[in-house]
Amino acid sequence: MAAQKNNAPAAMSRSSARRRKPVLNDEISSLIQAFEYFAESTEKLRESYDLLQEKISALDLELEKKNEQLDLNLRRMDSIRNHLENILESMSMSVVVINLDGNISIFNRAASELTGFTAESVMGKPYTESIGKKIPFESTPLHTLQKGVKHNNKEKEIYSKTGKTIPVEYSTSLVTNAHGEILGAVEMFSDLRKIKVLQEEVQHTRTLAALGEMAGNVAHELRNPLGGIGGFAALLERDLDVDDPRRKLVQKIIEGVARLNSTATNLLVYTRPVRIKKRPENIVQAVDDVLSLVQVELEQDESNIKLKKCYKIDSLEVLIDPELLQQVILNVVKNAVQAMSYEGELEVGITDVKNKDRVEIFVKDSGTGIPEEDIKKLFLPFFTTKADGTGLGLSIAKKIVDAHNGTITVDSSKTGGTIFRISFPY
Predict the structure, then answer these.
(1) If you ran DSSP here, which 8-state letter would residue 244 be given?
(2) Would you tell me which CATH number, out of the four given (3.90.550.10, 3.90.800.10, 3.30.565.10, 3.40.50.2300), belongs to the domain 279-425?
(3) Which of 111, 156, 298, 327 lies 20 to 30 Å (CA to CA) from residue 84?
(4) Tens digit of pLDDT for each residue in 8-34?
(5) Is the entire prediction scored with pTM above 0.70?
């Protein structure tokens, strides 16, 4: 019995061991399966990760290419913008662009130079506060913006920063984008001041041509009766005794006829084409011969005018008509003498302007000067400030100089004194 009791626990122990062994096997099997599943899942995750990395790398490469293309496009846009801005700034025509609010968005250099407004002072501000001030609405880009009406090559006047009016020719049109959407309006205008001056000169020239033709015909018709009057007056003077008081009256008639005949002759000279006979001539000698005659006249008139010669050259051959040149110098010098009222200093000089292949003759007086408003009219026919002048001397002088392809200009000081400059090519 005791032996049986001692064997019982051992048998129970072996039985328990047999029951635990299957349980451990199941747990190990499950754990192995779990590891295998984990390993399989890990492999799939690694494959997915690798695939994702490839996609990210492809996207990064594509994004890099897109960024490079975008950067290239931006550089191109900047280049185009700079190119357009350079074109706008280099244009001689003024360009002004307004946006939908009527504010100035572009104001190029030409517009600034013409109006006096700087781009900084008008950019972003209403058009009507600067160059659009006091201008009728119908002649502004605002009208084009609101009504869609374009203006082509029309004329108007704008106001500069100083308030002066400037005649301009202008055109306006709408500014749209690629989709046809309106972004604003543009106005282009050009200065007409020089053109207006030329138009006035052309009109004035036409008027003078008509007057000159008429004056020439009148002068031609007057010369014959004037010759008769002068001849009969000379016969009458011959028949009168030297002490006869009527002789002085006849002499006045003869002087008047001579003056009228001289005026008629000048009219004919002015209205006829200048026929020059050029030949190589020492221009210094030609001028000096005229001054010798002038010196004699000054001495005969007991004038207090001092004649001063300032020759920078001794001799220079120039292709000129010496007789006509002497007529020019004589007219200018006589004009200077009369301006000084026969008292003062008359300076005549000759200079060789070698870098321009021209010779310059200047006649300077110490007179009272010429008003600025008269200088522009000085070479116009029939313009004179003298009571007994005809206004043809300087006009004829200019006509002769022009025929020689030369120039004649005048400078006058407000404090007194006038300089005539005559130059000829050689």
Answers:
(1) -
(2) 3.30.565.10
(3) 156
(4) 555 545 555 455 555 567 778 887 888
(5) no
